[in-house]
Each structure stands twice: as C-alpha cells, then as structure tokens.
Design goal:
The protein has about 200 residues and is mainly alpha-helical. The chain is built from nine helices and five strands; from the N terminus they run H-H-H-E-E-H-H-H-H-H-E-E-H-E. It has a domain of about 120 residues. The strands form two sheets. A three-stranded antiparallel sheet has the order 3-4-5. A hairpin with a 2-residue loop joins strand 1 and strand 2. Helix 5 packs across helix 6 and helix 5 runs parallel beside helix 7. The chain is globular and about 60 Å long.
Amino acid sequence: MNRKPKDMRPTRYVIDEGVIAKSPLSTGDVLALLMLSNGVEYVATLKDLEDRGYVVYFQGNYYLTPTSKDILRDLLLMAEKTDDKEKAEDVAKRLVKTFPEGRRDNSPQHWRCSVREASLRLREFSKMFGTYPADDIVDAARRYVDSFGRDRRLMRSLKNFIWKVEEVDGVPQYTSDLAEWLENKDDDAKQKPNRIEMLTL
C-alpha cells in the first residue's frame, strides 16, 4: 500500500539583509536564486505580470505599479510575527485617538486614518527608522498635535506624520515627523522631518 506524503507546511522565506551581507551574494542574487529554485520562468512571468497590470515596461526596464507595491507591502507585513502585528495594532488604536476627528481645512483628507493603515505604516516605520516603546510613540504624537494648538494649517495627517514620501532636491525620500519628535523629546520648537533616501522594491 502506497503511503501518501504528509501535508507539507507552506515554505516561509525570511530575507535578512544583515545575514546576506556576510555572504558572497547580494540581495538581488538571493532573490534570483529563489526564483530559479522555484522554477519561475523570468521572462514569461514578467510578461504575465505586465498583462495583469502589476508591472509596466518603460525604456528597457520593468517597474512596479502602485497596485503591486501595495500588494507586496501587505504580503511582506502579513508574514511578520503575530506578536509584532498585535503590538503595532494596539499602538495604532492609540494614535488614531490622539489625532483630531474630521477633515483637514479645505481638504478631503482626514486627520485620522484607519487602524489598519496606521498599523501597516507603523510596521514599515520600524523597519526604516528603528523601534521605539509604544508609550514614547504615543507621547510623540500627542506633543506633535498639541504643538499646533488651534492653528493646524501646517499639521500633517496621522498617516503622513508616521512617514511619507517627499521629493528633496529632486530625490524621492521617506520623511518622518514621528521619528523627529521621538528623537527630540525635549525640543519644543517645530521639528524638521527626519529623512532617509527612498528605498525602492
């Protein structure tokens, strides 16, 4: 009697650039080898992704579309540890309550965002700017909102306070007022956004 193989658990890939840096391979090398090991036909896959609207071909190169960037972001973040997701969601709930309700003046944009959006941005924030205690993050947000008093014309919405992409000297960069207010807890003056060069997928 032939025995059926046991149900195999889905393969979990963890790409740690710190570990890769100690090897003779680059991150791109590892990703390419993973594609080959899974039998991915590179050219055919790219064409299929283009047909489905997930990449665009321009001047000899393929680029991700906003839709594919969002999907990839969600997939990577969903694969994180459950504890990390729950912690980020708890902080997100507190942050949403810290920002005022309603819309920005003369704008369709709301001051608050959904707990899910805030949680996703917090988890991305930790990858770009480091991890901070939950109470410090909430305190930084409270001080930020309070610093504007009733004149909120220059205040960012919650999601853009956590981080946003801005063009600085022609170069797209991630900026974070949250990171700046965390690092300058005792500075009452308005903070300049903390910037890092934009990471591209």
